[in-house]
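User: Need the bound-state model for flavin mononucleotide:
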Amino acid sequence: MSNTFGQLFRVTTWGESHGGGVGAVVDGCPPRIELSEADLQSDLDRRRPGQSRIVTPRKESDTVQILSGVFEGKTLGTPISLWVKNEDARSEAYSEMAEKFRPSHADFTYQAKYGIRSWPGGGRSSARETVGRVAAGAIAKKLLRERFGVEVLAYVKQVQRLTAAVDPETVKAADIEANIVRCPDATAAVKMIRLIEKVRKNGDTVGGIVEGVARGVPPGWGEPVFDRLEADLAKAMLSLPASKGFDIGSGFGGVLLTGTQHNDAFRAKGGQVYTTTNRSGGIQGGISNGQTIYFRVAFKPVATVMVEQETVDVRFQNTTLKGRGRHDPCVLPRAVPIVEAMTALVLADHALRQQAQCG
Ligand SMILES: Cc1cc2nc3c(=O)[nH]c(=O)nc-3n(C[C@H](O)[C@H](O)[C@H](O)COP(=O)(O)O)c2cc1C
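Assistant: Bound-state model below.
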């Protein structure tokens, strides 16, 4: 029953795609942080459906309400409850899903596990669940920025075979937001948008890679064994719908190098230790080393395609199904704020854990 994430900065998300709404409860947020709905809304707007011609046209304002945990504009240290109403829930488009399992979606596995499922829009397996993560993540981002000087960013690094050239050390939020695909390499962005539009016209979907970055994390955050910082980041990212892979620093590419080529040499300047390269991705032994943390998350081409495919119905009879309703041809642009949110939730939790144990 794992709808809760984190140890000290704990987030529980709730809600289904076509129910009364979606949201989160954040427990363990430190008191006296200035917080209003406006602090959360900008990230929710970046995740919102209907924001551009390359995402799902579902019309949701995703306006957030803070129901508890904030008084006179400041966090109280008590649970913060966040609610976003579902406004454009049209179950009719999904009526066939009551009877048939969408290939490579969660219909069959939810039915196998619970023996019941909220079939409109995929219920809890819908990416609407991530509204709660993004709202909670915006609080974590604020905590990290204001109390620890940590900046969290993500951007689209790759769509299918189209790869962007981006430097995680210098990339700016404004460059990420400069185009609708959220790729700071403007030339690659134009090609990516063209590809997504083409794929959508064909009723198909396409996947890619989001790169996540955290700058300003001090040395010492993380744990040495099971809760290694990269292990918690991996879990956070692989808990996202449609994510299929995670690698950090040199990642899978590191296997092409020898140890001599791969090592990050230590140097010291002005009483500070740094490394001349950053193949470790800012984490060594499960603990941050003070360098920029950067990692990649692979998202699949999502399941709902407007093409007839073979499947099975709830009576286990062979049948076919063609996607209907409003869907994302590529989740990457909307996945960017979600990856940022999960990164911030992991780091906020480890920041508080570091303070609690080591002061
Ligand atoms: C931002 C975002 C938007 C998504 N939009 C869709 C969609 O429109 N159609 C779809 O079939 N899946 C979509 N998904 C993916 C499904 O939620 C996901 O495939 C499903 O929960 C099954 O999980 P799995 O793919 O991780 O196995 C989206 C995922 C994300 C992160």
